[in-house]
Design goal:
Layout (H helix, E strand, L loop, with lengths): L1 H16 L5 H18 L1 H17 L14 H15 L5 E3 L2 E4 L8 E2 L5 H14 L6 H41 L16 H18 L5 H19 L6 H25 L4 H26 L2 H4 L1 H9 L25 H6 L4 H20 L5 H21 L10 H22 L2 H27 L8 H13 L5 E3 L5 H6 L4 E2 L9 H11 L3 H14 L2 H10 L2 H11 L4 H8 L5 H12 L5 E6 L6 H8 L3 H9 L5 H10 L4 H13 L5 H5 L10 E6 L2 E4 L4 E3 L4 E3 L8 E5 L5 E5 L8 E6 L7 E6 L7 H7 L8 E9 L2 E8 L6
Parallel strand pairs: 4-5, 4-6, 11-13
Antiparallel strand pairs: 1-2, 2-3, 6-16, 7-8, 7-14, 8-9, 9-10, 11-12, 13-14, 15-16
Helix pairs in contact: 1-2, 4-5, 6-7, 6-16, 6-17, 7-8, 7-15, 8-10, 9-10, 9-15, 14-15, 14-16, 15-16, 16-17, 20-21, 20-26, 21-25, 22-23, 22-25, 24-25, 27-29, 28-29
């Protein structure tokens, strides 16, 4: 950046002194002048560079110069650690023996899961550290991942060393530790359990495999119990603990199947081996349950079936419930294809070599050519680990990091086997040189990609957000509720210290549908009715209705019909379906004025609108047809929807439509995505026209707009002085989008243009973010911060009358 500014100064200087020179000659003079300046002003340039770097860093650091924690979840977990230090437990309160987070899923709060090991360990580690050195908690948590990654690398090295010596250890650590997918999840500031999610499976399988090489039954028993102990701790770390538990179960199933096949062939059963495997599996399963119960209680075991089922449906938009699956819109759960998996695992060449090595050693293990018991059993277990997580990669990008451990070990072992073979045929120094060259060939591309990745790691939060949320904490009452999309809910809770409708840990809840519907709504009355319901009870109104109707589709359609109605009309309708106490509670949730509440929008939400709109445009009629297509006859399906108030003609239409759409495409049929094609583009009036920076030309008198190549949008939305949004449709349009033109809320002499889907022009998000809430009755500007089109806008919600 400094060099660019020096060159620009040289360009201006040469242009003034030698305007008549040829462009090529001027370029030569510019290069010479810039070089001379840099040579003569090295110290000044160094100072300018350091000052600019400090300014860039300062954006991501607090007032003490400490870099902020990374991403979102890190802040959420840090709050639980802080609670343990000050309250003695991670929850904000303990209700009936259960930890409860009172800031999540406002206003009711949410009970916490059982995976609290990270928080307790971190809290006690901080207390121990503070006995010698006093540092702020968040500073300690920023650097704590260094401890976790060090432990992981040491354990991985030693485990791989047992497989194939130093080469296997080095290669395994290179591929796992320097993976582009893992580095952002294991760096300083990433206070999360991702490193532990790789460490604990290693700690589990190592003693389990070693139990088969133990010299006595007692030693084998001890190692199996140790393996089960790590299962219990792993359960206290991650909700997906069961994957490695089932890997070991599958391994033992393979062993039993092999014994059965050998019995069928040889007509003789190896009783001793059968007893060994049966007792080992029995001890492992029994003590795993015991340790899980001791560390986490009975909840993980009761939830096991549902957790497995949900993982298989992780990124499918339509699941068994009627609500959309929010995880299908989350970036880190985007499914990978084979090429992307390979590129994230050290590159295509490294990945293919790892897979080839895996199958070579698998063949040796299955055929009995591998005589080392530890290597043979670890090969089979690592293969099952790789296979299960390779499948998971197609459910989400984040699971790619789990295949790094087995693939790195297999590749390192292959290189080591080649090295040992080369030593027998070549001179030792030649074999060593060849092995070093191969290791370098693996290390170079992996390290290069790791460096490129690490150069782009910065905290997601910056001073703008931190300062805004500090103001929120100072200027809003403690009981206030913050309404927004889920992404930054963790910051709202930690920095703003306020309750949120939902956040990253509760994103996959019906609140996502309702909030998406609010952001898309073109009716302020509809939006405020939904917000009133959410701030009074979350999704409680639906839960009460459905508890009596026991029909989710009918319940949600009834609720949506009640939202825009008056209290009197809603009371009449509810009296037909619910007993008086339940009806009164629903009426309270829908029409009472909630606690003080605020609505937050920021520039990043315009890029998330595709995901938001997919959830907000969710069509429950289509969900019903899709879920019951193979269960009910056509007449039963359509008649049911007609009874719920749908027109017969429309019902028949969508049924016919569904028949034409392949089953794999029905998720996209159930809903549709919208998008903004540009952010706010500035424009200035010249004569009777407004010229925008992207080449569009707007004529306020004629109310026409067209692009530089004379293409015209479908329609133009204009916000007039009375704050009424008016649409002008162009029959001769040749662009498949609409244009929104308005005066900048921050600079009246500046016009602004946004290109978007037609349905978004009048949406609440568009009115709040782009037009600062002009023309809205229930949203009063409260705090605005930012510049250059990157704003955070906070509005105080005025509930007003509900009749």
């Amino acid at each position: 950046m400094i060099e660019d500014s020096i060159r620009q100064e040289a360009v201006q200087g040469i242009a003034k002194r030698f305007p008549e020179y040829n462009a090529l000659a001027r370029d030569k003079l510019i290069s010479n002048l810039a070089s001379q300046y840099k040579e003569a002003n090295k110290k000044l340039i160094e100072e300018r560079t350091e000052n600019l770097y400090a300014q860039m860093k300062d954006r991501y650091q607090d007032s003490a110069g400490q870099t902020y924690l990374m991403e979102l979840d890190c802040w959420h977990w840090a709050r639980y650690v802080d609670n343990i230090i000050h309250l003695g437990h991670p929850g904000d309160e303990v209700t009936k023996g259960r930890q409860k987070d009172t800031l999540m899923l406002a206003p009711n709060g949410a009970f916490m899961a059982w995976n609290n090991f990270l928080f307790y360990f971190s809290a006690y580690a901080y207390k121990t550290f503070s006995a010698f050195w006093q540092v702020p908690l968040f500073t300690f948590l920023f650097y704590l991942p260094f401890l976790f990654i060090s432990l992981f690398i040491v354990v991985l090295y030693l485990f791989a060393f047992r497989q194939g010596g130093n080469i296997a250890g080095v290669i395994a650590c290179l591929i796992a530790g320097l993976s582009a997918i893992f580095i952002p999840r294991s760096c300083a500031g990433w206070f999360d359990a991702d490193i532990l999610d790789l460490l604990f499976p290693l700690l589990i399988i190592w003693p389990y495999i070693s139990s088969y090489t133990a010299g006595s039954p007692n030693a084998r028993f001890f190692r199996v119990v140790l393996s089960a102990f790590w299962v219990g701790l792993f359960c206290a770390v991650w909700l997906g603990w069961w994957f490695i538990f089932f890997v070991i179960i599958l391994y033992e199933c393979y062993c039993f199947a092999r014994l059965f096949i050998e019995y069928k062939i040889k007509k003789a059963l190896d009783i001793e081996t059968l007893k060994t495997h049966a007792s080992t599996l029995g001890y492992f399963a029994a003590f795993s349950v015991i340790w899980i119960f001791l560390f986490c209680g009975i909840s993980p075991l009761l939830a096991l079936f549902n957790n497995v089922k949900e993982s298989l449906m992780l990124n499918k938009p339509l699941i068994s419930a009627i609500w959309p699956n929010v995880y299908s819109t989350v970036g880190e759960l985007k499914p990978f294809n084979l090429t992307e998996i390979a590129n994230s695992s050290g590159g295509k060449t490294v990945f293919m070599a790892s897979v080839a090595a895996m199958f070579i050693f698998l063949w040796q293990a299955v055929t009995g050519r591998e005589t080392d018991t530890f290597k043979r059993k670890s090969t089979l277990i690592l293969f099952l680990w790789f296979a299960s997580m390779f499948f998971a990669c197609f459910k989400g990008v984040r699971f790619t990091m789990f295949i790094l451990v087995p693939s790195g070990i297999f590749l390192g072992r292959l290189i080591n086997e080649g090295y040992e073979l080369a030593k027998k045929r070549w001179k030792p120094w030649v074999a060593s040189l060849a092995a070093a060259a191969i290791v370098a060939m693996v290390a170079y591309p992996v390290s290069k990609k790791a460096y490129a990745t690490s150069c782009n790691i910065v905290p997601l939060i910056d001073d703008n957000w931190y300062n805004v949320l500090t103001l929120v904490k100072e200027r809003t009452p403690k009981e206030a509720i913050l309404n927004s999309w889920w992404d930054f809910g963790d910051w709202f809770k930690v920095i703003g210290a306020r309750r949120v409708i939902f956040d990253g840990q509760s994103q996959n809840s019906p609140q996502a549908y309702w909030m998406a519907k609010v952001l898309l709504s073109g009716s302020e009355d509809e939006a405020i009715a939904i917000l009133r319901m959410l701030n009074n009870g979350g999704n409680r109104a639906f839960e009460i209705i459905d508890a009596h109707l026991k029909n989710p589709l009918k319940s949600v359609l009834l609720l949506e019909g009640l939202l825009p109605s008056s209290p009197q009309r809603a009371k009449e309708v509810l009296s037909k379906f619910l007993p008086p106490p339940a009806a009164e509670e629903v009426l309270r949730l829908l029409f009472d004025a909630p606690a003080k509440a605020y609505f937050i929008v920021d520039h990043s939400m315009q890029f998330k609108i595709a995901a938001i709109s997919f959830l907000g445009n969710w069509d429950f009629d289509k969900v019903y047809l899709t879920q019951n297509f193979n269960k009910l006859e056509r007449g039963e399906l359509t008649d049911y929807l007609v009874k719920l108030g749908r027109s017969s003609q429309e019902t028949q239409r969508i049924y016919q439509e569904m028949l034409l759409i392949p089953e794999k495409d029905r998720d996209d049929w159930i809903s549709h995505r919208l998008q903004y094609y540009s952010g706010a583009v500035n424009g200035k009036k010249k004569g009777d026209q407004v010229l925008f920076d992207n080449g569009f030309v707007y004529n306020p008198d004629q109310q026409t707009i067209y692009s530089g190549d004379h293409k015209m949008p479908q329609s133009l939305f204009v916000l007039f002085k009375q704050d009424n949004l008016v649409e002008i449709i162009y029959p001769s349009a040749n662009l498949g989008l609409s244009a929104l033109v308005y005066r900048s809320p921050d600079q009246e002499d500046i016009y602004q243009l946004a290109l978007l889907n037609r349905e978004l022009a009048g949406s609440l998000f568009t009115r709040l973010y782009f037009m600062d809430g002009k023309g809205l009755r229930h949203f009063r500007p409260f705090i605005v911060s930012g510049s250059g089109g990157n704003f955070v806008r906070i509005f105080e919600i005025e509930w007003g009358t509900n009749g």
